[in-house]
Structure formats: structure tokens, C-alpha cells
Amino acid sequence: MVWHYSRNGYFSVRRAYHLAMTIEDSPCSSDCSEKESQWWRKVWQARVPNKVKVFVWRACLNALQTSANLNKRMVGLEAVCPFCHDEAEDILHVLAGCTFARQVWGLALLGADLSHRTNQSMLKWMQAGASQMDSKMFGLFLCVCWVIWWFRNQRAIDGTRLEPSQASNFATQYLDSYLSQVDASARQMRPSSTASGLRPRQTA
Questions:
Q1: Can you give the three-state secondary structure of the chain, one letter per residue?
Q2: Where in the chain are the domains?
Q3: Which parts of the sequence belong to the Reverse transcriptase zinc-binding domain (predicted)?
């Protein structure tokens, strides 16, 4: 598969992120609803790593190498899900329909209805599931999506068997670690009173 937005034809997270930022800043096309615009602003402003945002963007564009997509390109792979072996593996099945994904969401305790309908788009499923989440829960929601996909890849590549509880715990720890690093960096960049030349007054 050729990535048409780079000179060498290879996909990179950095290039995809810059492209996504360009899309965010550009006027919305005629077929793009205000609801979708609000959704993407919410995604790009979320307190999660950039690679998670890019993953969500690619998922909504159906630009991930699921078994169904690879099968359509005649790569020679079966379209069946490597986890449940019950259905064709499109991105909605990976993140919402598969038994593994449903178990992960049950453990994540996000308090949202993450059920899906047949032929529902990835974007519509995400919008519906995240509609009642606050910013922190929304960040965890995005991270859980990314972790489910990452665990799926481990299973598909080398057959590694991972438990739903591992995915749920990893997503929480991953986000907490990221937020701690971001907050620590912000504190370090904040000028102190002594650094700015201001010192406490000396009393007699």
C-alpha cells in the first residue's frame, strides 16, 4: 500500500499528524457536518499521545491493515478475525464487535454504551460511545482503542495470547504515565519567582 501524502510513499506518524493538523485547520468541506468538526477538534485536543490521535484518525478513514482490508487487496490472507475466528475482521469488529474487545470494554469501566450496529461506521460508533464522556474518560477511551489494536497486532503477527485484563490495565497505566510526564514537563517550564529575578523581601 502506497502512502500518497509523502514523497517516498511510506507512511509515517509524523507526516500523518501534520496532515491531520492541516485538515483540522482547513475549512470544513460541504459534506462534513458541524458534529464531525466538533468531534475532530475534540480528538486533536485530547490529552493523549499523538500516535493515539493518528491511530483514531486512520481507524475512522478505514486506513488500517485489518484482515478484511488486506483480503480486498488480494494479499492472500483470510478475512477472519485472528481473535474470535467468527467474523470478517474490519476495524469496527476489532474495536467493538470482537469478543476480546467487548471484554476489554467491560473491564475499562467507562460507563458508556459501546454496543455497535451492523454496517455502522467507525466514526459514528466512536461519536456515540464518547458523547457523554468527560475529557479524562475520553482520553482513556481513545487509549483503549489504540491498545486493543496493538494487542490485536501482537496476536496476528506472532500468535501472542494476551488477556483482556492486560489490555485494560495497560491502557490505564499508559495514559497515567503520559499525563504524569506532560504535567511534570509543564511544571519544569513554569518560571519560578527566583528564576525571574524576584526574591522574597528581607525583614528586619
A1: CCCCCCCCCCCCHHHHHHHHHHHHHCCCCCCCCHHHHHHHHHHHHCCCCHHHHHHHHHHHCCCCCCHHHHHHCCCCCCCECCCCCCCECCHHHHHHHCHHHHHHHHHHCCCCCCCCCCCCCHHHHHHHHHCCCCHHHHHHHHHHHHHHHHHHHHHHHHCCCCCHHHHHHHHHHHHHHHHHHHHHHHHHHCCCCCCCCCCCCCCC
A2: 13-26+35-184
A3: 11-105
Walk along the chain (204 residues) in steps of 10 and give the mean pLDDT of each run: 46 55 45 79 95 95 90 79 87 93 90 78 91 92 96 86 92 95 84 51 51
pTM of the model: 0.77
